[in-house]
Design brief:
alpha/beta; 6 helices; two-stranded antiparallel sheet; globular
């Protein structure tokens, strides 16, 4: 049975809001629905959430579930990364749609920087990510996938995620099986873990679902599992 990615990765939305204005943005709808912020176009920093990072039990944190790393202010970045350096028990994931707006260096082993690619026209973002953000780990999220990206340069990419358009938007584009298989095959040829989002079940069928994670993520999940057994 396919696993929902939110059951594996915890959203830690220290920053909420984004002004990139993607037409398919699910985050904007969630913020409006749960009244998290009055104006999604104006990113807001919730510094009180930093304390969550200081828990001993290891987690895999996504810190840009309701924001984009490209719009984070330097002062926010400094505060968050100071906490990250103090808490190496976790794995931290950052994602952006605009790597061209970022200039950042990070030598931490437990921080992952990724880019969203939705179509062939977005492929340039992968190389820009690696050029503008110097880091130990990179990932690519092909979600929502609007067309066939064709051949993709996955050099130095540590994992990929593939997903389709969700929600009740008009003219919803459904990812084609051939696009998904092509990305999967390219990644597997380079021994790169592939994670299919649960929304793809209706497209590729349950028996074809692949949900692989990097070794570092699996180690955290195993530690959490063993911790729960010990508590019981």
């Amino acid at each position: 049975m396919s696993t929902c990615i939110k059951d594996l990765i915890q959203n830690l939305n220290i920053v909420v809001g984004c002004n990139i204005n993607c037409s398919y943005c699910y985050a904007r709808n969630n913020v409006r629905r749960f009244h998290i912020s009055d104006n999604f176009n104006v990113p807001k920093f919730f510094e009180n959430k930093i304390k969550i990072i200081y828990q001993t039990k290891p987690h895999i944190f996504l810190l840009t579930g309701l924001s984009d790393f490209s719009i984070w202010k330097n002062e926010w970045i400094n505060i968050v990364f100071a906490a990250i350096k103090d808490n190496k028990q976790h794995q931290y994931i950052f994602l952006t749609k605009r790597p061209d707006l970022i200039n950042f260096n990070c030598d931490l082993d437990n921080v992952w920087f990724g880019v969203s690619v939705t179509s062939k026209m977005d492929l340039w973002k992968i190389n820009v990510l690696k050029k503008n953000i110097k880091a130990k780990h990179y990932h690519v999220t092909f979600e929502p996938l609007f067309d066939n990206p064709g051949e993709v340069d996955l050099t130095n990419i540590d994992c990929i995620v593939i997903g389709t358009m969700t929600g009740k938007l008009k003219n919803k584009i459904k990812s084609d099986v051939s696009w998904i298989k092509s990305l999967h095959n390219q990644a597997k040829n380079k021994n790169i873990p592939v994670f299919f989002k649960e929304e793809l079940v209706s497209t590729i069928k349950e028996e074809n679902m692949m949900q692989e994670l990097p070794v570092e993520f699996n180690k955290v999940l195993e530690e959490r599992k063993n911790g729960q057994k010990n508590c019981n």
